[in-house]
Specification:
Helices cover 92% and strands 0% of the residues. The protein is mainly α and 248 residues long. It has two domains: 160 residues, Helix Hairpins, CATH 1.10.287; 54 residues. It is rod-shaped, with a radius of gyration of 62 Å.
Length: 248
Amino acid sequence: MAEKQSILGRISTLVRANINALIDQAEDPQLMLDQLVRDYTNSIAEAESAVATTIGNLRLMEQDHDADLSAAQDWGLKAQAASAKADQLRAGGNAADADKFDNLAKVALSKQITSENEAKQAEPTIASQNAVVDQLKTGVQQMHDKLDQLISKRDELVARAKTADAQQQVHDAVKSINVLDPTSELGRFEDKVRRSEAQVAGQQELDASSLDSQLESLDDLGTQAEVDTRLAALKAGSAAPKAVTSGE
């Protein structure tokens, strides 16, 4: 019985185990959960083996109980047959042989009583063992449920850990980009281009200003030439003799 209590105690301890508390205490939850899954799997195998042995012993006790009941019934039939034979012999006047069969009937009845007592003594033990086996079966099923919970929790945490790692990698990459800030390099290049564009525009403006000056000088020369031409014409006109009209 102590062995059965030990099995129940171990099963009860495993079933009551607080997975979340164990995870909180672990430095590496995934390794801890992997180890727990292995421990639970081994414990379930050991518990199932112990429960199977317990059930096997119970079935043997039940078989012995059934055999005692069957034996008690057989001894009862034999006692009845011996008693009937004794009555038949006594009725026939054969008292000596009748007494022998009565004695055989008494022996058979004694055997019947012994078998009945053995069967009756085994019944409380069989009943209690059946109750223990039911508890053990329930406990093993709870261990299987707990194992499923462990595996599910482990798979969930592993998936979440992988997601967290991926997010951390993205975060680190974004952080490194922010630190390097390639847009600042683009900004410096843009400033350089703008300075080049400004220099070209300035040169073009300077060139345009010089061309305007040259054109203005050409305009001045043209105007001066026109003035000289008209002055020469005036002078030529005043020096020429006036034409005489026919009326004079």
